[in-house]
Specification:
It is built from 5 helices and 15 strands. It is an alpha/beta fold.
């Protein structure tokens, strides 16, 4: 079960185009698994910004001088993240976590390919450690728009059997997208399972490439999450259930990790007419 605590900023640092914040958040670190996220209140207690901001957990330390800590990576996109970027050590932030359903780990030793886009690679790094602890082979494919928007490539290189890097502008690795190099990586490594986190278009491409080869995939979606606990319904997307029935499910509760071939990528952002509970069409008659 998630907990709500008044966290204290332990450190802030810049990593390329991103910000890395470490919060002292006792009770959250001890419960966290790869793929979980936290939801932070932004703007302070008197702010008009009522909605929380959700961030995938990059690293945790269960014990420390000040207690358990949680680290996450973010980019400034609006007033909420700009406020976060201006925080300093000892500032207080209300935080809830860990939230969501984490990545599912294999029962045995497998060859796993981890695909990250931008700072979407952050939750894949603790996943890589967990897989390595189980004796799995880990290969990385990381992509971003430019070199300053890549994240974790040095950590990934240390933990993996191989790493492929792509950038849109060619400033590091191969010029192009992760989907350009992923097929060769999947075939060369005899991949058994794919894990991915990043922009929705990337997740769709990764899921389709894996499905073409009969490889199961797990994707951590980046839908906007306002409450983080399944109340506001802003993060719903159509997903096919185990029974074959499509439902609008909440990324923050039923996700953010989904089986890649279960997400109806063509219908993301809509409510398809055939999903369970969809509004009935009234037709054009009088």
């Amino acid at each position: 079960m998630p907990v709500q605590v008044l966290g204290e900023v332990l450190s802030m640092r810049r990593v390329g185009a991103y910000h890395a914040m470490t919060l002292v958040a006792p009770g959250i670190a001890e419960r966290t698994k790869p793929g979980h996220f936290v939801a932070l209140q932004v703007g302070g207690p008197e702010s008009s910004m009522l909605l929380r901001r959700a961030f995938a957990i990059y690293d945790v330390k269960e014990r420390g001088v000040y207690g358990g800590t949680v680290e996450f990576i973010f980019s400034v996109h609006g007033k909420g993240t700009a406020w976060l970027a201006a925080r300093r050590p000892q500032d207080k932030i209300d935080v809830v976590g860990p939230l969501g359903k984490p990545f599912r780990l294999p029962k045995g030793k497998v060859n796993a390919t981890l695909v990250g886009g931008g700072y979407g690679s952050a939750p894949l790094l603790p996943l890589a450690r967990a897989l390595r602890d189980r004796g799995c082979r880990v290969d990385f494919v990381l992509g971003a728009a430019s070199i300053d928007r890549l994240f974790g490539q040095l950590d990934a290189k240390r933990m993996s059997s191989s790493i492929a890097v792509t950038t849109d502008d060619g400033s590091m690795g191969e010029q192009g997208r992760v989907s350009d190099v992923l097929p060769q990586v999947l075939d060369r490594t005899r991949c058994d399972v794919v894990y991915a986190c990043g922009p929705m278009a990337m997740l769709r491409a990764v899921s389709e490439l894996a499905a073409e080869r009969g490889i199961p995939s797990q994707v951590a979606v980046e839908e906007s999450m306002a409450c983080g606990i399944g109340v506001c319904m802003t993060c719903v997307l159509p997903v096919i259930g185990d029974d074959g029935i499509s439902r609008m499910v909440r990324s923050c509760v039923e996700g953010p990790v989904f089986l890649g071939d279960r997400v109806r990528w063509n219908d993301v952002g809509t409510v398809p007419a055939d999903v369970l509970g969809a509004p009935m069409s009234t037709g054009g008659g009088h």
